[in-house]
């Protein structure tokens, strides 16, 4: 069973799935008063404006943090319609959008929002990034 934690300010709920995190540090570099890994709990939505929190969550390259608006009752508020591919400097290949990933045995997995694929070769969860590029000081 995967861990999932939810944090809310009454207007928006941020969902954190630590197993997806690639430790890009984008969340806490952008809003350090809201996302602070040195504190517990590490997410404190009361220290930020809802719109700023949403924009920061959208910047998460792995999809480890996501959000939904509480009044919409719709947990798919981050729906992406176009597929975009981005190469992160010294990091993973990011795919924004809906896609199906077929493994070597032919098993398909549906992915949506943001998917991070390993470029460094060191991930223990290939084809997905697990943050190993930081440990090995990957350049590329």
Automatic annotation (TrEMBL):
Gene3D superfamilies in the cross-refs: CDGSH iron-sulfur domain, mitoNEET-type
Please give the superkingdom of this protein's source: Bacteria
Query: Has UniProt tagged this entry with the keyword Metal-binding?
Result: yes
The record's InterPro entries line, in alphabetical order, gives: Divergent_4Fe-4S_mono-cluster (IPR010693), FeS-contain_CDGSH-typ (IPR018967), MitoNEET_CISD (IPR042216)
Q: Is Iron included in the keywords of this UniProt record?
A: yes
Q: Where is the Iron-binding zinc finger CDGSH type domain?
A: 90-139
Q: Which UniProt keywords apply?
A: 2Fe-2S, Iron, Iron-sulfur, Metal-binding
**Pfam families this protein is in?**
Fer4_19, zf-CDGSH
The protein, known as = (4Fe-4S)-binding protein
What is the protein's species of origin?
Answer: Arcicella rigui
